[in-house]
Amino acid sequence: MKIEELKAKLLDLLESDIEFRYAVAGKLGILELLKRLDAIESLQAKILDEIKSLREKPREAMEKSGKAMAKSKQAMGGGQGIKRKPGKTLEESGEAMGEPREVMERS
Fold first, then answer.
1. What's the pLDDT tens digit per position in 55-66?
2. Cα dist from 29 to 34, 60, 84, 87, 97, whole Å
3. pLDDT in tens, 24-42
4. Is residue 4 a contact partner of residue 11, using CB atoms and an 8 Å limit?
């Protein structure tokens, strides 16, 4: 059998005989590489899940903070200003800045 005929027969076996294909792949170390790639892919999926989880935590904290701020605002009189004297805001009582504020007009 000539080299060309042997090559053609080997290629034909690789295409048609799955056991032969796996035996050759095993001898070449390809199966070990595939197993390592599978492990890396699995680890990568876990890392991506962790990243998604870490991104969710600040979003949840912001939502909780916003709700707490709304409750605080409501408890302080609906957010209409800080009450310094009964029935008056700081601005109304003249104590906000020590003196009444001057409004600057833009030109």
1. 888 888 888 888
2. 9, 47, 80, 83, 79
3. 988 999 988 989 999 999 9
4. no
